[in-house]
Amino acid sequence: MDWGIKNRLSRIMNPQDRKGVMLAVDHGYFLGPTERLEDPKKTIEPLLKYADSLMLTRGILRTCVDPESNIPIVLRVSGGTSILGEDLSKETITTSIEDAIRINASCMALSIFVGSKYEHQTLNNLSKLVDEGEKYGIPVLAVTAVGKDMARDARYLALSCRVAAELGAHLVKTYYCENFEKVVDACPVPVIIAGGKKLPEKEALSLTFNAIRDGASGVDMGRNIWQSDRPVEMIQAVRSIVHDRLTVEQSINSFFLTKSITSNELETLNTR
Ligand code: 5RP
């Protein structure tokens, strides 16, 4: 692997433990002002120091993140359709490699929609982006999604991750599922997991713990962090599971129960 690609990857995946906590705030590229991400600057700022990297579009980067901040950037470079559009899978490459270089991106992220109407187009996007990335030493994160009617199970997720890796992705994002180790074992590059829709905090931490236990190299997590009522504690707890191998209980004890917490808050945390 090219020195530049390895060097950039080492900025987003800690070389000591080969794990990473990627804070995802790119949701607006097709969802618009998602709940608790209406003012991205306000959402991002208190979380930044606990993230290993930040995943977002160039528009939010330029307007909401201090260029002097040292956070490694995972630049989302695919899109072109919104939640109101014809089909979410109809994506194209939306940002040039020159802009990714100007931004000093540590990685470029692009979605592939395996089993969808526009599967071919999105796989073609990935191949082209990998060619561009290889030219300039910028790794590519393939964000895998499966078709609307396909189950998010090990069979389809393994297929999507493997296709992404075969086309040259350097890192793959998928969802946690039963038999997740089969997904990881069949993918020759590191696999990280998305958090998905907001869950009760304890469930999201269990998801993180199980994924790491079963071979994930980290998380690319958004809503389960910044839609929490305690986002700073949540990202610290996620981080402690990914990097310090804390259990779910230990992470809750360390970050949620150390400060005074009302019994109502605790109840919410354990049951939501
Ligand atoms: C949206 C994305 C998100 O960045 C990714 O799904 C992680 O966010 P969340 O944890 O909220 O699912 O790629 O397309």
Task: Walk me through the topology.
Blueprint: H1 3-12, E1 20-24, H2 28-31, H3 40-44, E2 53-56, H4 58-64, E3 73-76, E4 78-79, E5 92-93, H5 97-103, E6 107-114, H6 119-136, E7 140-146, H7 154-166, E8 171-174, H8 180-185, E9 191-194, H9 201-213, E10 218-221, H10 223-226, H11 231-244, H12 248-255, H13 263-271
Parallel strand pairs: 1-2, 1-10, 2-3, 3-6, 6-7, 7-8, 8-9, 9-10
Antiparallel strand pairs: 4-5
The protein binds ribulose-5-phosphate.
Keywords:
binds ribulose-5-phosphate; globular; 272 residues; 43% helix; TIM Barrel; 8-stranded parallel β-barrel; two-stranded antiparallel sheet; alpha/beta; single chain
Task: Outline the structure in words.
The chain is α/β, with parallel strands linked by helices and 272 residues long. The chain has one domain (3-271): TIM Barrel. The chain is 43% helix and 16% strand. The chain is built from 13 helices and 10 strands. It has helices spanning 3-12, 28-31, 40-44, 58-64, 97-103, 119-136, 154-166, 180-185, 201-213, 223-226, 231-244, 248-255, 263-271, and strands spanning 20-24, 53-56, 73-76, 78-79, 92-93, 107-114, 140-146, 171-174, 191-194, 218-221. The chain has an 8-stranded parallel beta barrel, surrounded by 6 helices. Strands 4-5 form a two-stranded antiparallel ribbon. Helix 9 (201-213) runs parallel beside helix 11 and helix 11 (231-244) crosses helix 12 (248-255). It is globular. The chain starts with a helix and ends with a helix. The model has no long low-confidence stretch (mean pLDDT 94). It binds ribulose-5-phosphate. Ribulose-5-phosphate (5RP) binds at residues 24, 26-27, 55, 143, 194-196, 220-224.
